[in-house]
Amino acid sequence: MLLDALARLAIDAGAIGILAFALYYPRHGRSDLAVLLCVFNLGVFLAVIVIVGGEFGVSAGLGLFAVLSVMRMRSETFSASELGYFFTALALAVVSAVEVAGLGFSLALAAAALGAVLLLDHPRLLRSTRTMEVTLELVFSDHDALRRHLEERLNVKVVDVRVVEVDYVREVTRVELRCADRPRSSRPLPNEGVGASPVAAGS
Question: For the chain, which ranges sit under pLDDT 50?
Fold first, then answer.
């Protein structure tokens, strides 16, 4: 029993190490979230393996996931890709801890999950974008003209833009846009407050 638990812990540790420090950190560059992924994974693994190996029953397992479902990261907002990494860390802990068809099956599931992350989050497969909230000191009646103005002022390729608020009295337009991470050219960004003023940005 102890040797099997240690073997499963080794599988989980290797899998979460690859996920956090070989996939997430080199691509997204946040060491704090990489450490958080490891700690979160370890906590879930220990809880699941105690529930599976003890006499807690299904109700205790459902209670654990109920607690996990109401947890919220209130300090900051995470992107969709980061939530995907959190879910993968959770899945790795579960498939490593639960005895279904031996260690080989758990290892195969962990490898499949890591392979999916490697492929789906590869920068050459899908274009990376980010979301920005921008306040413009102009009012536009044409959506295409608004898009062109944003691309020229911010030096980015606008993928999608949504008008949040239009104030005709102050001649101010507030928009939310999604743009490609790579700028269209090497021209530096314009000074804020002249025609277009970025006020907030997030992944």
Answer: 74, 183-203
Question: Residue 83: what pLDDT?
Answer: 85
**Total residues belonging to the chain:** 203
Number of Cβ within 10 Å of residue 4's Cβ equals 13
Q: 148 near 160, Cβ under 8 Å?
A: no
Instruction: Provide the pLDDT for residue 81.
Output: 80
> Helix (H, G, I), strand (E, B), or coil: what is residue 158?
strand
Q: How many CA atoms lie within 13 A of 83 on its CB side?
A: 10
| Beta strands 172-180; 129-136: pairing state | antiparallel
DSSP notation for 39-70? HHHHHHHHHHHHHHHTT-HHHHHHHHHHHHHH
CA-closest candidate to residue 189, choices 151, 154, 147, 157: 154
Was domain 129-202 assigned CATH 3.40.710? no
Nearest to 22 by CA among 85, 93, 96: 85
pTM assigned to the model: 0.64
In the chain, domain spans: 2-120, 129-202
Note whether 135 and 199 are within 8 A (CB): yes
CA distances from 196 to 175, 177, 185, 189 (A): 11, 13, 18, 11
